[in-house]
Amino acid sequence: MDITITEEGSQIIAAFDGRLDTVAAQQIEETITPLLEHADKAIILDCEKMPFISSSGLRIFLKIRKEVAAKGGNMQLRNVCPDVMQVFKMTKLDGFFEIQ
To answer: What is the mean pLDDT of the chain?
Structure first.
């Protein structure tokens, strides 16, 4: 799992590349620090190249969302593949996140 974080104007874009499974979630815990530091901005999680998400991956997304809510920013998930969307629907998190 790789994450590329870029800043485009007032937006922070995090592009996920690979499976966000339990092992990957543990490895990227520190990688998401810039997202948490800029949680007062618009954060976009680009999931185009993320074919899988585990419960540990969902926890990472929830952690980011919690920080964004606390700091008054906003967060969107984009380019979510059908398999990952199914996980969001099964866990009823599809209504919790703004998914485009």
So the answer is: 94
Phi, psi of 97 (to 5 degrees): -105, 150
Q: What is the CATH number of the domain that holds 88?
A: 3.30.750.24
From the number of C-beta atoms within 10 Å of its C-beta (0-12, 13-18, 19+), residue 36 rates as: middle
* Domain range for 40: 2-99
Please give the model's pTM, rounded to 2 decimal places. Answer: 0.93
Q: Give which of 59, 36, 96 is closest to 5, Cα–Cα.
A: 36
pLDDT in tens, 37-71: 989 999 999 999 999 999 999 999 999 999 999 99
Q: Among candidates 15, 22, 80, which has minimal Cα distance to 51?
A: 80
Structural domains in the chain (count): 1
